[in-house]
Amino acid sequence: MDSLRNHFLVSMPHLTDGFFEKTVIYICDHDGQGSMGLVINRPLPSADAAVILQALGIGPAKGEEGIRDIYYGGPVQPNVGFVLHTPEYETDGTIPIAKDVSLTTNSEIMQDIQDGKGPARYRFTMGYAGWGPEQLDREIANGDWLVVPASGDFIFGEADHSKWAEAARQFGIEISQFSGFGGSA
Questions:
Q1: Within a domain: residue 185?
Q2: For 11-54, what is each residue's pLDDT tens digit?
Q3: What distance in Å separates the CA atoms of residue 113 and residue 39, rounded to the nearest whole number?
Q4: Fewer CB within a 10 Å sphere, N or C end of the chain?
Q5: What are phi and psi of 96, to 5 degrees?
Q6: Does 170 fall in a domain?
């Protein structure tokens, strides 16, 4: 399959596990070695966010700026932070994914956000979703995921509670019309 980098995976209703039910995943990398993406529609409770920031040694926000929300990015390395953001911000370790989305794992970005010097728009996640070689391709062929072209405006602008249904609508599907069961022909 061609690279799915800069695409969304929209979970189908039959995926009812605690990790991926009603998720939208932004694919950051997809090649012969495997795939990596970040769930973009599952915020952690605000009390958890405060504990995480404290554990990471991130100081309090200055003024109105600062990290307010932290998202569940996926079940792999849940203690590692990843920041999807607009591309005007760059530091060591920033990787451009698309013309309107970059990825940074350097913790400097988190303090820059707290100090009001970070990117204009961002999504701070803990953990990521990962697949081995060809694993994601098999899951897509099995009907577990819809694949939809991605955009930074959707990542940073669409309300979290509507992302799952809205991403499916971009594919022309009213996902609530599907049953919760998968199958194969």
A1: no
A2: 999 999 889 999 999 999 999 999 999 999 999 887 677 777 77
A3: 20
A4: C
A5: -70, 130
A6: yes
